[in-house]
């Protein structure tokens, strides 16, 4: 029951439009904290057998109880899948129409920078991701590898 609740409601609401996110490290940390809070609320406290007192579950225990990937790998997987649809636009058209507002609100990393970093983690760092996405067969192999990846 808890797995269905987490997967269908919480993950889908929190990850809405995560294909376009450009997350900074602080935002990734806040998402992990939120997810651990939700999991600890769903699974509840645990009774310690030694002290016979109730205590909150630790993050490792939560990851053992709910082994599915957390929101950060899901976001990275969806970013890689979305990149295939964005690649035909090319770099020039990709950022036209984007208005950053105040410069201090501008993200330090662009969406394209996150794609490059994710591909670098996969071992495809030296290749141009747009050229790689145009070759649909090799891109599908890469997307399937990312989808099967379990990042802690």
Strand content: under 5%
Please write the string of helix (H) and strand (E) elements: HHEEHHHHHH
The strand line-up of the biggest sheet is 1-2
Estimate the helix proportion, in percent. 55-70%
What is the first-to-last residue Cα distance?
23 Å
- How many whole angstroms does the radius of gyration measure? 19 Å
Q: Number of domains in the coordinates? A: 2
How many E strands?
Answer: 2
Q: Stretches where pLDDT falls below 50 for ≥5 residues?
A: 97-101
Number of helices: 8
Mean pLDDT: 76
Largest sheet, if any?
2 strands, antiparallel
Query: What's the shape?
Result: elongated
Structural class computed from helices and strand pairing:
mainly alpha
Describe the structure.
This protein has helices at 2-14, 25-43, 59-65, 71-86, 90-94, 111-121, 129-134, 136-147, and strands at residues 46-47, 54-55. The chain is mainly alpha-helical and 152 residues long. It has two domains: 23-67; 69-152, no CATH class. Strands 1-2 form a two-stranded antiparallel ribbon. A hairpin with a 6-residue loop joins strand 1 (46-47) and strand 2 (54-55). Helix 4 crosses helix 6. The model is unreliable at 97-101 (pLDDT under 50).
SSE diagram, text form:
Blueprint: H1 2-14, H2 25-43, E1 46-47, E2 54-55, H3 59-65, H4 71-86, H5 90-94, H6 111-121, H7 129-134, H8 136-147
Antiparallel strand pairs: 1-2
């Amino acid at each position: 029951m808890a797995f269905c609740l987490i997967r269908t409601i919480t993950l889908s609401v929190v990850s809405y439009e995560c294909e376009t996110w450009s997350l900074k490290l602080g935002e990734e940390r806040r998402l992990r904290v939120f997810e651990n809070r939700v999991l600890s609320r769903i699974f509840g406290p645990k009774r310690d057998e030694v002290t016979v007192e109730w205590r909150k579950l630790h993050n490792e225990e939560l990851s053992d109880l709910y082994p599915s990937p957390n929101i950060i790998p899901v976001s990275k997987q969806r970013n890689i899948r979305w990149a295939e649809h964005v690649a035909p636009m090319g770099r020039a058209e990709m950022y036209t129409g984007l208005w950053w507002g105040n410069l201090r609100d501008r993200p330090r990393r662009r969406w394209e920078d996150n794609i490059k970093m994710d591909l670098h983690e996969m071992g495809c760092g030296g290749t141009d991701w747009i050229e790689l996405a145009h070759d649909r067969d090799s891109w599908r192999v890469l997307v399937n590898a990312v989808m099967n990846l379990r990042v802690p």
